[in-house]
């Protein structure tokens, strides 16, 4: 695909006429100004191999969209299964919560992210579907009703998934709301009460019979490891939504806060560029698409309404355009690589005593009097050894497990190699940066292996080090003159000098390069693990790959973990995500429903299922000074000498960090009121604890700011007047599972604070949500410069951390 396409017909892209003058009669007829609407613009670029690159921009006056959601919750008997969560070491932890407990919490999380201008309803299904909470505005009273209804739900019965979805679509259609409407379906397994032709065909039939149903999107969420992923993905794909795999409870928060942010930032759902699906168009974002020789371009939403036509001139491709085209082509290749193709059929024979696991179609002949348990969803086939031997034949879909697994593994590995070659080639010229990232990853893996780390920890270490190495290498790019020389030597013979200069200027700041790099991280990380063996593939790998492909098809960021999707969110979605994360972190943990678990399990869930954010203490807490006096925490300044938390020696304050908080949830540890995840040690205690795990929360509307301190030297924290030990920033503790943190406990937080306004004077002021996670980080890893109070400091920002969504991690 190297031959260039002919020039696009310019007549197809007509310039709009001049605007009417201010005194035009047409304008004067409108007595009231119309509210501003979202606007969409198309930019067409020709001459990129055999296609045209189309850039779609959405400019929006609004910051969010009011929506109507109908949650469809599976309450079948299997929802009583205990739900696990992975800790930082990759080990599965049990807290006594069932899958239903976690799904209830997810529903509460969705409600917490909505305003009163949105609407929410709830339908449950087991053998039958029931509307347990009619859709209404998400005000305080409605949220209380939702919590009451959720508290009364218990697992029972079978899994009539279609019954729940059908009722949800019918209820939303009956409401006739003008808001964008969506179904959010939560389930843990295989439907065992099914409509004729299956759920996807039933949805298609309903859309044909009831036209307005076509305007409702369906998002499906599969919990656990016994899913009919083909059905869940098929329903979401048919109805313009996403299928998300939620392997354990630790992914609940990020999955549903991201969904809320995406829906509320959307200006147009399920958009089409001609016949090419684009997914949702969100405010403040730019998408790219490749079309082969279009004669005209028309952008429409799912209702068929025209959003934009191509206008103006057709642009000649620049180097930046060719890079975006390469990134878009890579995205399409990634979707194809992750897609699980229908397996071929073949004939096989079985003998008495054989035991297989398979799927069957067609005629089946079995032993006389023997009942086969082989079904359309695949189960063991048993034979009675006492029966007389007879031939048994069937059409077996063998590759459900084997061929699909091997094919996906091979194609994904090949794509990772191609992506590396693309970044190292003349278009990007980032071979040295790739080598630096690989070297950083190799060192991290060696250290983790030497320390006896688990496979999960080694992979976390590799991924984090690769990303950090990549970002650091981009920041250390050589001077522009040196890059011009190197790039000139790598360009094809006869390439114009202008391309050399343009390439040199873009190296290290190119958004397209980071999109491809994110794909490499996933392909060589989680995708590689998911396809590493038939066992991993069958247990969870295929669900993960389907889920990741679904997010890329929709062009959305469905969690903070998968790096290849982080670039999809723009500024509006990032802000909404920060708000949603903050709302989720303030939810009280549910009570465990399984026997043998006490209140501590609720705190454990909050610790594992919320993201540990900035930890601080209220300003009215009293700190003990080394000279024997006391001082309010809010009055402490740079140079004050407090009492070290562990040694009782002097602890000199280097910087005070004050964070603006809205109605913070605080926990009293001795005489100190701290946020949930700021490690403290109770008076007379001998270990660090999270306040949320040792005491009950209180929402304090009188507290506007919370405080944390960075100390000189090796001080670990400070003591309050009452003897409570409060940990400091950059404390250096690594051998304590509560105190240790890869950002707050290391020099990384010091480096981040140095770039903030006020650090040299010893006082940094932050807004709520200033601490953020970069792409793929489970823990906080940076400070958002937009949430630092004061003039912007001169700073160098990691490229991926800027271009990936910066997700606020609240206290």
Task: Give an overview in words.
With 811 residues, the chain is α+β, with helices and mostly antiparallel strands. Among the domains are: 68-268, Rossmann fold; 611-808, Endonuclease - Pi-scei, Chain A, domain 1 (Beta Complex), CATH 2.170.16.10. It contains 21 helices and 35 strands. The chain has a six-stranded mixed β-sheet, sandwiched between helices. Strands 20, 23, 24, 29 and 32 form a five-stranded mixed β-sheet that branches. It has a four-stranded mixed β-sheet with strand order 13-2-1-16, covered by helices on one side. A hairpin with a 3-residue loop joins strand 6 (119-125) and strand 7 (129-137). Helix 2 (99-112) packs parallel to helix 7 (252-265), helix 8 packs across helix 16 (534-554) and helix 12 (480-490) crosses helix 13. The model is unreliable at 1-35, 342-350, 355-401, 500-509, 596-613, 774-778 and 792-811 (pLDDT under 50).
